[in-house]
Amino acid sequence: MKHIILRFASISILSIFIGFIVYVHLNSLKPTFSILSDNISNLKEGELLYYGSDSCEVCQEFNKVLKDYQDETQSKIYYWDATNFATIKKAAEIKVYNTPTIIIRRNSGFKIAQGYKNLEELKLFLERD
């Protein structure tokens, strides 16, 4: 009996450790987001807003691109969760219905890019007026 308990405890500890390593690895692939909880009108010129979801596979891939962009530029990226009903309503007000979507404030308006972009495409989108 003592042998079974020891084996169970060892397996449990190993499982928790492996789970922690996987969790840390998956979170290191995501950029650090700031939450834009208020109206989009609070987004300042040149700031980025990312509309995405953890349940969206394309968004998970796009997170890696955003992470690379953020590491390279030290940009602040705001996040709207596409699974939150209030956020979905806010996004619809600016005609955003798909994930992933990047929104940037430009010249008193918004520039919107929907769908996956690689790092170079993202940079080109953000550089153009």
TrEMBL record:
Keyword terms of this UniProt record: Membrane, Transmembrane, Transmembrane helix
SUPFAM superfamilies in UniProt: Thioredoxin-like (SSF52833)
Transmembrane segments: 6-26
Lineage: Bacteria, Bacillati, Bacillota, Bacilli, Lactobacillales
Protein name: Thioredoxin
Keyword Transmembrane: yes
Highest taxon, organism lineage: Bacteria
